[in-house]
Amino acid sequence: MKKKQEYIDSLRKLDMEVYLFGERVTNFVDHPIIRPSIECVAATYELADKPEYLDTMTARSHITGKTINRFCHIHRTTDDLVAKSKMERGLGAYTGSCFQRCVGMDALNALSIITYNIDQKHGTDYYKRFLKYLQYVQDEDLTCCGAMTDAKGDRSLRPAEQPDPDQYLHVVEERENGIIVRGNKLHQTGAISSHEIICMPTRAMREEDQDYAVSFALPSDTNGIIYVYGRQSCDTRKSEGGIIDTGNVLYSGQECMVIFDDVFVPWERVFMYKEYEFAADFVEKFAAYHRQSYACKSGIGDVLIGASQLVAEYQGTARASHIRTKITEMIHLNETMMCCSLACAHEGHQEPSGTYFVNTLWANVSKLNVTRFPYEISRLAQEIAGGSLVTMPSEKDLNNPRIGKFVSKYLQGVDGIKPEDRMRALRLIENITLGTGAVCYLTESLHGAGSPEAQKIMITRESNLDRMKNAARRLSGINP
Ligand code: SF4
Ligand code: FE
């Protein structure tokens, strides 16, 4: 397995075409706005290297028998699925941010199911190709970026009906040695923190959409792939030279617009090619795995609850009964999200390829809770924090020779607590509920792995209303 520093050094070797604020960024690894997001992925290597986390962070490869990072593993038991949820919560609490690597793990696991199923129907050899690719990923301990969401253009039109055919990623040319693809993937978590990008179809497809039913993996610095770094609320605080105002002084998340400007994919890297009837199942498998992955939000919730409790203690409100009730309410919501992620893992089952897959109903219940609870936890955190959360002077004011002493004096709370520490805890709450951290904790909780309506459709489909009606009929004496 790679060490943390080896991972960071390996990114330096990638010749990616990256843009930020309208300019090409050559040394993206050391860019002050980008680096904290790379540190965040690096934490997945760092913790896998610590003996106390080996059970959670590593697994045994079912291909080679070697110990590998769990992010490269194919789940072989429900214990694997449970360890995945616990790993994600742990990393969420360690980083207070999106550590990005789950999208690749979820893409690999979805591929391990779908490539096998396509082969059973069409006599193709995608699964063999996939296993060869997987072994490469495991041996090199690579970070993969699972890319599903296309731009989609006019949402009322199907892929093949779009006036601009590139609104969904598609095949534009077939060659003897591979294919040429064009289009985009949006909201791409961890795109430039990754060694590989794995593309998947974004929705159910019909026969006329078959050029869009394509899945493949490419090295992230393949010629023709362009990355436009997404900006985040308060992102430039990271380049102001200070540290306190960033809130999370160590880590952040990362999303990019990824453009495929006529990119060549060799056949050995193609895992689905025009088998449009498998697109819907592909999306459902990836989405359910990723909905489970949102155990990460309970980890970030741990950080937010901790910061809220600290602020209450620093401000002298911690013993007020309404503050204690609010903290308890936050914990209840936070643990409810975690319970659902664990439940869908415990109730997982084996697919024909041997891969273990989560319980779809509970994965969707889990994610629907995640679209709501972080907002309520954030509201409670802001209520506990008070108005200083958004009106407090900056770190530079604290350090100004003329006004610093006043800023410090009037931000003093409980005697013996440094005003600077109160500022730090407040800035962390600001980061998670309003700043760069809110990208992951709030809006991504809403739309990542599918928006709430997608989960409602799945919950309706996966639940058994007839069984419930029968239970009601029996107890009320209604004859069927
Ligand atoms: Fe992983 Fe959570 Fe980030 Fe998604 S939002 S990649 S599940 S840390
Ligand atoms: Fe996500």
Describe this structure in words.
By secondary structure, this protein is an alpha+beta fold. The model has no long low-confidence stretch (mean pLDDT 98). The protein has a 6-stranded mixed sheet with strand order 2-1-10-11-7-6, with no helix packed on it. It is built from 18 helices and 14 strands. Helix content is 48%, strand content 15%. Helix 4 packs parallel to helix 8, helix 5 packs antiparallel against helix 6 and helix 9 runs antiparallel to helix 10. It has a domain of 175 residues: Butyryl-CoA Dehydrogenase, subunit A, domain 3. Bound molecules: iron/sulfur cluster (SF4) and fe (iii) ion (FE).
Main attributes of the structure:
480 residues, alpha+beta, Butyryl-CoA Dehydrogenase, subunit A, domain 3, six-stranded mixed sheet, 14 strands, binds iron/sulfur cluster, binds fe (iii) ion
- The proportion of residues in beta strands is 5-15%
How many distinct beta strands? 14
Helix percent band: 40-55%
Structure classification: alpha+beta
Bound molecules: iron/sulfur cluster, fe (iii) ion
Distance between the termini: 60 Å
Spell out the CATH superfamily of the domain at 291-465.
Butyryl-CoA Dehydrogenase, subunit A, domain 3
Write the CATH architecture name of the domain at 291-465: Up-down Bundle
